[in-house]
Amino acid sequence: MMAIIFCLGSEKKNIIRMVMAVGALAILGTAVYVTLDFLAQREAGDAADFLFRQDIVWYQSLNINYSVGVDGISVAMLLLSSVIVLTGVFASWGMEIQTKEYFLWFLMLAIGVFGFFISIDLFTMFLFYEVALIPMYLLIGLWGTGKKEYSAMKLTLMLMGGSAFLMVGIFGIYYFSSADGQLTFNIVEIAKNHAMPVDKQLIFFPLTFVGFGVLGAMFPFHTWSPDGHASAPTAVSMLHAGVLMKLGGYGCFRIAMNLMPEAADQLSWIFIILTGTSVVYGAFNACVQNDLKYINAYSSVSHCGLVLFALLMMNKTAMTGAILQMVSHGLMTALFFALIGMIYGRTHTRDIREMGGMMKIMPVLGVCYVIAGLASLGLPGLSGFVAEMTIFVGSFEHTDLFHRFFVIMGCTSIVITAVYILRVVGKVLFGPVQDKHHESLTDAVWHEKIAAFGLIIAIAGIGLAPLWLSDMISNSSIIMHFMK
Amino acid sequence: MIETLKDYYSGFAIMNQELTLVLVLIFVLLADLFLGEKGKKNLQFAAIGSFALATISGFTVSFGGSQEAFAGMYVTSDMHVLVKNILNIGTLLVFFFAHYWNKNENRNQSGEFYFLTLSTLLGMYLMVSSGNFILFYIGLETASIPMAALVAFNKKNRDSAEAAAKYILTAAFSSGVMLFGISLIYGSCGSLYFDEVANAFQGLPVQILAMVFFMAGMGFKISLVPFHLWTADTYQGAPTSVTAYLSVMSKGAAAFTFLCILFKAFQNYPEIWQNILWWIIVVTITVGNLFAIRQKNLKRFLAFSSISQAGYIMLGVISGSPLGMTSTVYYIFIYLFTNLAAFGIISNIENQTGKVGMDDYNGLYGTNPKLAFIMTLAMFSLGGIPPFAGFFSKFFIFAAAAEQGQYLLVFIALLNTIISLYYYLLVVKAMFINKSENPIPTIKSDNMSIIGLGICTIGILILGFVSPIYEYMTSISFGM
To answer: Which residue out of A4, A5, A58, A61 would a mutagenesis test of the B interface target, given it has the greatest number of B Cβ atoms within 10 Å?
Structure first.
């Protein structure tokens, strides 16, 4: 369905950029088309779990298929990814060093992400998952800033460590995938067979959940995230925080919880504690950082924690909210990182103590930053509000003390978010100009405006008209599955 | 049993590959003798060409089921044929990479190089196809003794001599240990045929002792920890082509033979050797990985990396299932392309600049982007990163171990892949990220190396996606 191979022989930077832009537009077009077609088919009454199914037998003896298809959740994720890939291309328009290699690795990352979201086969999914991870090393190591080599190695090793947990989990799922010996990697069939004994689930569920949780920046496995984001080049931070971290949440949901529901039910308390911690801990950490990228990275830890937290509530409203939060956070964090990259490209510092009065100097970027900030702290009319509202309403359906406690704790993160967002906005945008040289800086140029406005339109679009998206998500059979 | 002379000679009929190889051997020997000084150049083409023909002819051999000759002394099946073909491909690739070295530095002895290499290959053939401990031992020695000469090939280099001394001493010692084990097996089982040993094996202490001795001997050959101490020095001192040969062919053949013997002769008491192997795998992978981190010389580095890779190969052996055999052979097959690509780059650069240190590779991407790219592919594939072939072979070998419920072992091995990824990435980092004052100048590779590297690159890039190869191996593999 998504053959994303571009002609990439050219040495000319402008041509490569054009090819990338056209290609990314084509991807976005395809994603929009898929969405519309998907909605139309659902409208027409096609109630299959996954639409646009395609199966190609790959390794017959192990029953590995290249098997793809989409349901409402994957469609939402595809839309998100394609928007971010497109804006990412525009945000890295100014990349001058080894442009061709940069975009090649960037594409490999994108292929991994898209492949992951459309896979139905565990093997294919795992393959795409790792395909998405490894380009990060070179992208950060070569084109990053700061202590890039350390961050790149830390990020790669920690995420690969996560995939080590994950792989054991996948083998467990595979060898208990069926009662009659017809082993399969197909997620739909495994969910249908539901053959895994509960005592085995209790072993493999934590492995799988932690495996994906590392990528979802779950406390205490989040430490790669701030360093990685801070060192990565702009577009990579965008794609990484915006999409790649969502792979974690999506995987936890689609594989760990969907295929091992009993264990998810029994062990959810452990992970609620961990994710609840990351929500609050990330937010508090963001309050004391001085580097813009670190602030956002910790804010991502907090928001992605909220995604996992909501998933573990295991009811329809909260889970829909979690997926909405993935989309919303993806867009707004990408916007944040894009803007930070643009500001950094001008001021050559990300330390908020050295900046001030940016609103006067670069009004367009300043306004965009304020919008991103408001989306992040959940202003009605923007996507953040829709997602967080749904999550907390859903979570509050649990009436026992344990859940209530953690939900209220999670809610406090909204207040803390406001603290760190407003702190940055106040200091960087409205305060007095700290550095005389900054007064001569210019405002956004055309490709930066495309990147920023594209994301803002998407954020506001979801904020103003969220129903089609939340319906599409909540009607997915996988969420229905947890209604029982 | 052998009734008549005719029965005796009919045994040769199923030894096609061995006989072809012997023909090539004699041809190379005679050519070396008669071509003289001026014909040295032609000799290389004669040797490589005739061996390439032998390799191709190997693919025409097919038996359907299992066959035996000389009263079960020699056994073969499609799987054995396939393993020999894989060894052939690897040897051919080594010849490609060794061509430049043979043309210049090793000008006067190139005939001997080919002759000795092919002799060890013949030994490996016999070892792979053995149905009896005696033939196995003969094959093993035929493979090891010329190997010692090969390791010592740089006569003027002291390191090479030291490497050969270490190799021959440990090889002799391990052969001694193994022979002692075999003699105990004969004493307690009354036979040396694998089938009969399997029936007579009752798990008596003396038999277990014999098995342990046997495993220790094999451990030396495959360089499993704690029998690995010769590996690093020998790999470093030997000429790079020989190191490549040693690390892939020697290891692959020994690993497959080990698997066959464990599956056949010791099939009735699998839990005993599985328990031993469990610990051997854990320490092999871990020690190999931890020591590789500190290495600065790339040949030494790959020596420790190959120790840990041997541990991964054993994951397929421990399962004792057809899936285990398939994944082991598949792993060896992929490992061959991957490791030879790495050694191909190293020998290419060493031949032309003499540099083998990891620091020398700093900034390689700037001056030799193609070589750096292939090296990166090889490192990623060794580390098991998709979509390269190494990922698939690792996945299958873990699947084989997990099938038997060895989840803990798989988990330990997987954690180790992270360590291994760290040091493989160090090489990538050196080539791409590190800056160098004095980078390796742009190298113009010779044609033979380009062909060899091309084959390896294609192998790394596409083999994982070509499932028929794996399916074919599945269809001809067998378990205990």
So the answer is: A61
The residue with tokens 């928001």 is A303
Summarize pLDDT for A150-192 with one digit per residue, the tens: 888 888 888 888 888 999 999 988 888 887 778 888 888 888 8
Position A293 in a domain: yes
- Beta-bridge partner residues of A55: A67
Contact assignment for A142 to B433 by CB distance below 8 Å? yes
pLDDT digits (tens, 9 = 90+) for B266-302: 888 888 888 999 999 999 999 999 999 888 888 899 9
| Residue whose tokens read 């790394």 | B460
Q: How many domains are there within chain A? A: 1
- State the smallest CA–CA distance between residue A112 and chain B in angstroms: 10
**Chain B closest-CA separation from residue A126 CA (Å):** 9
User: Is B407–A171 a contact, with Cβ atoms under 8 angstroms apart?
Assistant: yes
CA B414, CA A144: separation in Å to the nearest integer?
A: 29
Tokens for A61, please give them. Answer: 């003896």
Structure confidence by residue, pLDDT tens digits, B307-333: 999 999 999 898 888 888 999 999 999
Q: What is the mean pLDDT of each run of 10 residues along chain A (484 residues)?
A: 42 65 77 80 73 79 81 84 83 73 80 85 88 85 80 87 89 84 82 82 88 85 84 84 86 85 84 88 87 86 88 83 87 86 81 77 83 82 82 83 85 86 83 73 76 84 81 72 57
Identity at B313, one-letter amino acid code: I
CB–CB contacts below 8 A, A to B: 76
Residue to mutate among B285, B370, B395, with most A CBs inside 10 A, is: B395
Q: Is A1 contained in some domain? A: no
pTM, entire model: 0.90
Partner residue opposite B403 with nearest CB, options A58, A60, A175: A175
Closest residue in chain A to residue B415, using alpha carbons only: A164
Contact partners, residue A130, CB within 8 Å, separation at least 6:
A112, A160, A163, B385, B386, B391
Instruction: Identify the residue whose tokens are 């803007």.
Output: A339
CA distances to B171, B224, B349 from A60, rounded to whole Å, are 42, 33, 41
Torsion angle, alpha carbons of A137, A142, A144, A145, to 10? 130
Give the gap in angstroms from C-alpha B409 to the nearest C-alpha of chain A: 10
Name residues whose C-beta falls within 8 Å of residue A460's C-beta, 6 or more positions apart in sequence.
A381, A382, A383
In a domain, A6, yes or no: no
Residue A433 lies in a domain: yes
DSSP state for residue A68 in the 8-state scheme = E
Considering only the beta carbons, identify the residue of B387, B417, B428 that sits closest to A131.
B387
Q: Which of B418, B429, B432 faces A160 most closely, judged by CB atoms?
A: B418
CA distance B404 to chain A (A): 10
